[in-house]
């Protein structure tokens, strides 16, 4: 039988097996996949914002890394990836990391709404610092999960370096017991996104023959340090919702000839806001002012921009303090809001408010906003999300605005009788359910320019807004492109990635393991060696007889 | 982790088997071919068991997905492992020579085949990856315990085949043999009842295997004494 030949095989193996192995092992290693095991932890993470504005780079410039994870206090070189909670990292630490570390992974708070005011303020500030300058190391943000909590805790307590421990034995124990984490993100190379910003505009035509035009404008993008997490509730979902609600109210009034107002109202939704310097507004204005065949902007009475109107009473932001008797002054008194005056500074990298784009083109323009100043960091924060109080404030502000606009259009100087006032209220009734649903919808969508301007024409938020406006008026959507040679802005992808965390042990650990295994094998060897003697004794014990074979 | 770590694990698996083969004296009988034969029998037995499980048992992947642990089904499945005893019986019969040589040759061949089939791929894929996990080291240590387990089971099977086994030992042998397919189930049950960690469970397995082994050894000693082997 062939099995009898196996002893021959035995001989062959004895002689040549080691040499076979020498050949076989490298072949097997080459043949097997590079990374044969899935990591025990896999997270989806969001990359920090990256864009160029007038070819000035902003944000995070790299994407892939494969580094050892360290906590905020224990990292030391550019071979470490710092893992921290966003609340824990201070500005100084961030600047230090930006200059010296290899990568940064920030874990977002578990629940935004439970943050204290101090923590919020801190995150706003951190975001501002991060956005200020370009960052050369990869920076990622991860949503909170219990696994991350565990990893962060583990990193804080582990001393893989033996510098901190007293004796060699202690160091050895630390090595065996502590876990290291290798953090790996591999993404496709950074690429420019093909950005095609859109403008939606629709007009309610007024009664008068030589109709003046009132422009109501809002930008519907959101910006934050993380494009994937830009939900921008206050800035500027609130403005968009208000614009849609105004469109609904006035389309009803303009629908019947009896109550149609004198001036036309032009509603304008633009897809790039303050983070990209109101680029689309600029392009759109150029298109309609500088070409002769467009008559949309021929006789503009005033431009009212809505921006961040859900966090309290409104303010009117202007570039030039209006004199009494002008339309803006009349609107101010009808709105009964204070002025905030800020001159246009063309030397600044970014324009302060949306209305400045119109003011530059010599139109009367102002912005309504709840914010005191354009520098408020929550205009571009990832914490800007849906809350109930902000919704109430938004509804109030829409009511105020609608009333003021209506009283301007119908030129009502004083609401004399109770009856008139009641009629007025009924006509301008703000539909809270619709405001709520739109506000919820917009704040649940990622509205960073990276997504808005690269989506298909009829898809996403742009498509939804266009369909909503079509219900009230005829909507024209126009797509603009950035200059090929000298782009006003450039957006970069990818915006998200998959992060793998491998738990690893230092190389010394394997040496210690070898020692332990050798000790164990020696034990087994001696156990086998003394087995005959043990058997003799044991048999004597069991059988009670001396003589055993 | 690294190739080095893989080497560590391999040493932990391979060396005890090698030592058991070399230093127990059975290599002098030139029984390498019998070891291979026992290994072949192991593979054949597993195939038969798989065929049996696939034919007569419900699709248990689905019941597992629902998260329920069906004790009865598990016991039934473990019962199929009685086929292992039959396989071991044939392996022992195929080996010529004295009792201890028969037992050790069959056990080592059997356990080797099991290690190669059930653990080599896991080790090759897992221990070499960049992720470190104690489970690879533990699985290697477990294979050492498995050798002990198979040796004691083989001894029991051999004792059972002997017609000159003392009458009072017969019930013990039968009980231990009948229980041997369920040993994993029993150990897991104890582990989950006491809430043991995986390492403690390994210790339980080792203790169980040694206890069974010592009992078998005692009966072997008595029998050897009796027949003057």
TrEMBL record, chain A:
Transmembrane segments: 20-39, 507-528
Major location category of this protein: endoplasmic reticulum
Record key words, sorted: Endoplasmic reticulum, Glycoprotein, Membrane, Signal, Transmembrane, Transmembrane helix
Keyword Membrane: yes
Subcellular location: Endoplasmic reticulum membrane
Membrane topology according to the record: Single-pass membrane protein
Domain of life: Eukaryota
Any Gene Ontology biological process: regulation of signal transduction
Family of the protein in this entry: Belongs to the nicastrin family.
Protein name, as recorded: BOS complex subunit NCLN
UniProtKB/TrEMBL annotation, chain B:
InterPro entries: TMEM147
Protein family: Belongs to the TMEM147 family.
Main location: membrane
Location relative to the cell: Cell membrane; Endoplasmic reticulum membrane
Spans traversing the lipid bilayer: 198-223
Lineage: Eukaryota, Metazoa, Ecdysozoa, Arthropoda, Hexapoda
GO CC, one annotated term: endoplasmic reticulum membrane
Annotated protein name in UniProt: BOS complex subunit TMEM147
Entry keyword set: Cell membrane, Endoplasmic reticulum, Membrane, Transmembrane, Transmembrane helix
Membrane topology per record: Multi-pass membrane protein
């Amino acid at each position: 039988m062939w099995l009898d030949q196996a002893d021959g095989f035995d001989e062959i193996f004895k002689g040549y097996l080691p040499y076979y192995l020498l050949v076989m092992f490298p072949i097997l290693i080459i043949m097997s996949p590079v990374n044969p095991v899935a990591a025990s932890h896999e997270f989806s993470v969001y990359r920090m914002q990256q864009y160029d504005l007038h070819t000035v780079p902003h944000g995070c410039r790299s994407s892939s890394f494969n580094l050892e994870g360290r906590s905020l206090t224990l990292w030391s070189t550019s071979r470490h990836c710092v893992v921290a909670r966003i609340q824990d990292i201070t500005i100084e630490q961030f600047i230090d990391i930006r200059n010296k570390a290899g990568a940064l992974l920030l874990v977002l708070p578990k629940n935004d709404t439970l943050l204290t005011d101090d923590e919020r303020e801190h995150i706003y500030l951190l975001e501002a610092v991060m956005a200020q300058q370009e960052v050369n190391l990869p920076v990622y943000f991860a949503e909170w999960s219990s696994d991350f909590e565990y990893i962060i805790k583990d990193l804080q307590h582990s001393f893989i370096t033996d510098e901190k421990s007293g004796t060699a034995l202690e160091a050895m124990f630390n090595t065996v017991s502590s876990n290291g984490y290798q953090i790996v993100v591999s993404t496709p190379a950074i690429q420019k996104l093909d950005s095609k910003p859109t403008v939606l505009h629709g007009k309610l035509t007024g009664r008068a023959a030589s109709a003046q035009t009132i422009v109501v404008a809002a930008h519907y993008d959101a910006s934050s340090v993380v494009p994937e997490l830009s939900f921008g509730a206050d800035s500027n979902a609130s403005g968009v919702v208000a614009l849609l609600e105004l469109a609904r109210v006035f389309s009803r009034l303009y629908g019947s000839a009896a109550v149609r107002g004198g001036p036309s109202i032009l509603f304008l939704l633009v897809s790039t806001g303050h983070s990209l310097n109101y680029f689309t507004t600029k392009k759109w204005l150029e298109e309609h002012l500088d070409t002769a065949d467009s008559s949309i902007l021929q006789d503009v009475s005033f431009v009212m921009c809505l921006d961040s109107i859900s966090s309290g009473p409104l303010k009117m932001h202007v570039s030039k303090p209006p004199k009494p008797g002008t339309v803006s002054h009349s609107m101010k008194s009808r709105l009964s809001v204070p002025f905030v005056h800020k001159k246009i500074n063309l030397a600044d990298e970014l324009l302060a408010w949306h209305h400045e784009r119109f003011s530059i083109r010599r139109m009367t323009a102002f912005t309504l906003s709840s914010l005191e100043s354009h520098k408020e960091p929550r205009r571009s924060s990832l914490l800007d999300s849906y809350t109930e109080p902000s919704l109430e404030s938004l509804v109030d502000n829409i009511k105020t605005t609608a009333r003021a606009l209506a009283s301007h259009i119908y030129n009502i100087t004083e609401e004399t009788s109770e009856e008139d006032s009641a009629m007025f209220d009924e006509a301008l009734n703000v539909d809270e359910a619709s405001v709520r649903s739109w506000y919820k919808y917009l704040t649940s969508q990622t509205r960073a320019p990276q997504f808005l301007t690269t989506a298909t024409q009829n898809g996403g938020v742009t498509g939804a807004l266009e369909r909503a406006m079509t219900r009230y008026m005829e909507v024209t959507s126009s797509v603009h492109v950035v200059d090929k040679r000298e782009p006003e802005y450039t957006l970069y992808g990818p915006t998200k990635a998959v992060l793998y965390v491998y738990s690893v042990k230092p190389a010394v650990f394997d040496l210690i393991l070898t020692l332990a295994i050798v000790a164990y094998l020696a034990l087994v060897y001696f156990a086998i060696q003394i087995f005959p003697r043990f058997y003799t004794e044991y048999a004597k014990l069991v059988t009670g007889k001396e003589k055993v074979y | 982790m690294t190739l080095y770590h893989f080497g560590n694990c391999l040493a932990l698996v391979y060396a005890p088997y090698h030592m058991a083969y070399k230093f127990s004296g059975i290599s002098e009988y030139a029984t390498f071919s019998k070891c291979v034969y026992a290994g072949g029998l192991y593979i054949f037995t597993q195939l038969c068991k798989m065929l049996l499980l696939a034919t007569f048992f419900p699709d248990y992947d689905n019941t597992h997905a629902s998260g329920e642990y069906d004790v009865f089904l598990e016991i039934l499945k473990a019962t199929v492992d009685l086929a292992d005893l039959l396989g071991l019986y044939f392996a022992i019969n195929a080996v010529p020579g004295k009792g201890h040589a028969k037992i050790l040759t069959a056990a080592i061949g059997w356990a080797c085949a099991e290690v190669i089939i059930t653990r080599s791929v896991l080790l090759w894929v897992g221990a070499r990856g960049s992720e470190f996990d104690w489970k690879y080291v533990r699985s290697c240590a477990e294979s050492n315990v498995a050798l002990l387990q198979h040796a004691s089971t083989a001894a029991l099977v051999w004792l059972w085949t002997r017609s000159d086994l003392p009458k009072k030992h017969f019930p013990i042998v039968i009980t231990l043999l009948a229980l041997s397919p369920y040993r994993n189930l029993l150990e897991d049950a104890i582990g989950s009842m006491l809430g043991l960690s995986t390492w403690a469970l390994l210790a339980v397995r080792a203790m169980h295997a040694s206890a069974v082994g010592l009992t078998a050894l005692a009966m072997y000693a008595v029998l050897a004494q009796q027949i003057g082997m």
